[in-house]
Write a structure and sequence with these properties.
13 strands, five-stranded mixed β-sheet, binds zinc ion
């Protein structure tokens, strides 16, 4: 069975700061959207209600009746218990044992499928973006943290406890910096946006000149992608060094992933990659290609994500199609 023309799905990207829902048709076109802030601090039930409002807004904008939506997919921060449809724990949102699937289903009266945000982002790029047409693909999304996923022979790899694909937590150096997960030297601890910011601030504290903090109202506020992008483009030395270090570490990670999975496509996305663009991806490719078995690199494409902000909603939409037609 394949999707019919008059059927629609909804994809929802549940993020730490925002909810983004989209009504998607059988060709992967976004017909209507709804956005709200997550407001996780108000509690899980409030956020689920806000998700349902986003879905209704997206349906209204798309001029689609909720009855015509055959399933809803959600990309959520994890770790998740996929069998029970629960968020086990999420430091980002501050919830534990949250029944995401059941609560959303009760509000929308539609079938709901969930998966973690890294997997869903990868699925979006696989179905509609940089990986379209391939069968074996890995993805790394470099943002505040580092998410990722693995698709083998057209299927997301979930693993025994459904927690596979935590690519940001591969350990590159056990004596490296502390990671948010509680261990040392993970890829995320070397290469995330927070790691880049830490490097820049350390360089400045050590006396390096960095224009990135000049003429800024609150130099101690978290570094935003836009400012990172501008400082990199201007050639700010401390910023260029920190970004290049991040890309090199991602390159080492990609070399390992190439040797382990031998994918056809490696997609590199997330806020940092969107901010820096092609120079980041080329440096990842250069480092990976210098540290990998040549056979694992033959005809392999290492590319930037194409869907930007839409990768997770479109991946969640694909999850919904799979739920409806499995
Ligand atoms: Zn870690």
């Amino acid at each position: 069975m394949s999707p019919k023309k008059q059927e629609y799905v909804v994809g929802i990207d549940l993020g730490g700061t925002k909810i983004y829902a989209a009504v998607v048709d059988h060709k992967g076109r976004i017909l209507g959207i709804g956005r709200k802030r997550t407001k996780a601090e108000l509690g899980f039930e409030t956020t689920v209600q806000r998700m349902a409002i986003c879905v209704k807004e997206a349906a209204a904008e798309a001029d689609v009746n909720l009855d015509e939506v055959i399933a809803v997919g959600v990309g959520s921060p994890g770790p998740l218990d996929l069998k029970r449809g629960m968020i086990i724990e999420t430091p980002n949102l501050g919830w534990k044992d949250a029944p995401l699937k059941a609560s959303l289903k009760a509000l929308l009266k539609r079938p709901v499928a969930i998966d973690n945000d890294g997997n869903v982002g990868l699925l979006g790029e696989y179905a509609y973006g940089a990986g379209h047409g391939c069968r074996d693909m890995v993805g790394l999304f470099i943002g505040t943290g580092i998410g990722g996923g693995v698709i083998i022979n057209g299927k997301l790899l979930h693993g025994f406890n459904e927690n596979a694909g935590e690519l940001g937590h591969m350990i590159l150096n056990p004596e490296g910096p502390m990671c948010g997960c509680g261990t040392r030297g993970c890829l995320e601890a070397f290469a995330s946006r927070l790691a880049i910011e830490r490097e820049i601030r350390a360089a400045v504290a050590g006396g390096a000149a960095a224009a990135i903090f000049d003429n800024v109202e609150k130099p101690d506020a978290p570094l935003r992608s836009k400012r990172l992008s501008e400082a990199f483009a201007a050639g700010d030395a401390a910023v260029v060094a920190a970004v290049e270090k991040s890309a090199r570490y991602v390159g080492y990670g990609v070399a390992s992933l190439l040797n382990i999975f031998n994918p056809e496509v490696v997609v590199i996305g997330g806020g940092v990659v969107e901010a820096i663009g092609e120079p980041y991806v080329r440096l990842v490719e250069q480092t990976a290609s210098q540290n990998v078995f040549k056979i694992a690199l033959r005809n392999v494409r290492i590319v930037a994500a194409e869907l930007k902000d839409d990768s997770a909603v479109l991946g969640a939409a694909m999850l919904a199609w799979q739920k409806a037609y499995k």
